[in-house]
Specification:
- This protein has a single domain, classed as Arc Repressor Mutant, subunit A.
- Helix 1 crosses helix 4 and helix 2 packs across helix 3.
- The chain has four helices and no strands.
- It is an all-alpha fold.
- The chain is globular.
């Protein structure tokens, strides 16, 4: 949820990695998992879905 929230802020993988003190590659894996689980094609779609559902 934390990575999804940061996607909603429009942050890049590198910026998310810096914020969470993890590698950009780790963030890339999390983003891929989020897109798959939410069945969306883009970061923007994932963020929009989360906003519409009231997740953040």
């Amino acid at each position: 949820m934390e990575v999804l929230g940061l996607l909603g802020e429009g942050l890049s993988n590198a910026a998310i990695a810096d914020r969470l003190f993890v590698s950009a590659k780790t963030v890339d894996h999390h983003v891929s998992a989020i897109l798959g689980k939410l069945d969306v094609a883009s970061r923007g779609e994932a963020a929009a879905l989360a906003r519409n559902e009231g997740w953040f």
